[in-house]
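Translate structure to sequence.
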């Protein structure tokens, strides 16, 4: 997942020269670097999430966290744009102070995601600015001055697409499956 996100960001922001990484597992950081060695950038392995946040503006969270682990509201600021793919990393206090954009509010506001926990705490959804389609159409701004921006793409199907791509590539590498050139008659 993060390799695809990195590829996209490097395509869009060609001036990026450094990527700051943090993972509880040093082995996974090394694996990520090894799998992305073709990128003409430097990878900096950080000792903690705060080191990443101090040094970056665009952050991707793709954890397996089942409950929030980021509670310190001082860590995220106006400069930050966060892609919260894993959806359960932030305490409600962080979500409340951020400019939040979701894919589908009804979809993201369940399963104890950070958005859901914030809704439970507040009893309303006024902390969500709108959805990604509204940003694309220009109905709402992509960010708000003075706040970090968190995009929560639950419902977008990006994980499904990424997993399908992984399975497809593994099948090709192993000579498995049947390649269908076209679904049209």
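Result:
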């Amino acid at each position: 997942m993060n390799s695809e996100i990195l590829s996209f960001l490097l395509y869009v922001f060609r001036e990026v020269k450094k990527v700051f990484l943090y993972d509880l597992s040093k082995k996974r950081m090394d694996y990520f670097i090894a799998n992305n060695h073709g990128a003409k950038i430097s990878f900096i392995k950080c000792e903690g999430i705060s080191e990443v946040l101090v040094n970056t503006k665009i952050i991707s969270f793709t954890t397996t966290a089942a409950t929030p682990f980021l509670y310190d509201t001082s860590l995220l600021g106006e400069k930050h744009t966060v892609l919260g793919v894993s959806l359960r990393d932030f305490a409600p206090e962080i979500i409340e102070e951020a400019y939040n954009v979701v894919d589908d509010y009804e979809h993201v506001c369940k399963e104890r995601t950070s958005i859901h926990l914030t809704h439970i705490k507040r009893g309303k959804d006024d902390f969500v600015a709108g959805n990604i389609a509204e940003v694309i159409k220009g109905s709402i701004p992509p960010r708000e001055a003075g706040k970090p921006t968190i995009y929560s793409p639950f419902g977008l199907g990006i994980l499904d697409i990424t997993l399908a791509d992984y399975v497809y590539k593994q099948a090709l590498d192993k000579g498995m499956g049947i390649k269908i050139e076209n679904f049209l008659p």
